[in-house]
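Course exercise 7: structure representation. Students receive a sequence record and must write out the corresponding structure in token form. The form below is the worked example handed out in class, using Pseudouridine synthase (238 residues). Read each field label carefully; the graders check that inputs and outputs are placed in the correct fields and that the protein name is recorded exactly as given.

STUDENT ID: A-19
EXERCISE PROTEIN: Pseudouridine synthase
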Amino acid sequence: MDAATRTANPDFIYAPPLTPYLQLLYYDDDIIVVNKPSGLLSVPGKAPAHKDSLISRLQRVFPHARIVHRLDMATSGVMVVAQHKDSHRLLSKQFELRQTAKRYYARVAGKLAKPSGSVDLPLICDWPNRPRQMVDAEHGKPALTHYEVVSQSEQETLVALVPVTGRSHQLRVHMLALGHPILGDRLYGSDAVVGSAPRLQLHAESLQFNHPTSNKVMQFCAPLPFGNYTPPPFNSPA
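STUDENT ANSWER:
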């Protein structure tokens, strides 16, 4: 199946990982920081079979937990969750005003032409093929991603990605627009790309924000679940 005709993967069966059930990186009275596994929804889906999610699991332990931001089901990595209404409001404002900083890592197909650069392409929902997104210069919302090559061969590249905006599927579509789809991407990749990895090779490795109560700068990292690479400390561009 060509990527252009790949829609919502009708053959896909939701089977979220059960081990580890929850991986907490930090928590206090205001926030919870977790490492979400690939294959787990951030919030419940509409279908009864899609009820299991990160927030559902968290609320069994922290009944008042509230989602602040999301990661795609197939993406793993660091997320911050609010413990109450006030922290939810303050954290959400930081994401809205782009006062947070994030770093992702991805394994992409092929060899990038430049060692670093930026992708500045507006995105919009590809409505007939939702949840796919697409580049649309006329109607799309601004989307900016910085990238830096970590290592590469003729077949693939490990790249660090720092999104400035937070559009849905932004990193996946921006890498695809460069001609280097993320390996294992069932939604945007060709059959060869889908078959190249057992999961989407995209991981939210670092997240920085201000604590909603103390205003202290906090940074959390989750080790890469693929490849053999230990990232250096994250120097936020903010």
